[in-house]
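Person: At home tonight, work slowly through the protein below, taking as long as you need, and write a paragraph about the fold.
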Amino acid sequence: MKPGEAVEVYTVWAAQSPRAALKHWFKGYRFVRVEGVTSIVQHTEGVFEGCDVRYPSQDVRSASPGTTEW
């Protein structure tokens, strides 16, 4: 991934499941950089637009081709 590229993050959206936390891929982020095993991404919309967030690198992937998230 390159800095500025649209990405998706795999994150928990429901923690109180009887089996395990429910996770889903969410759009609305852009890749900033990698620090060790962590990827820094930035929100591109909503109340947190422009804020950096850290995710495990295995939970960050390139968004679908043709996406214009930012």
Notes: Residues 41 and 53 are 5 Å apart (CA to CA). The chain has one domain: 6-62. The first strand starts at residue 6 and ends at 14.
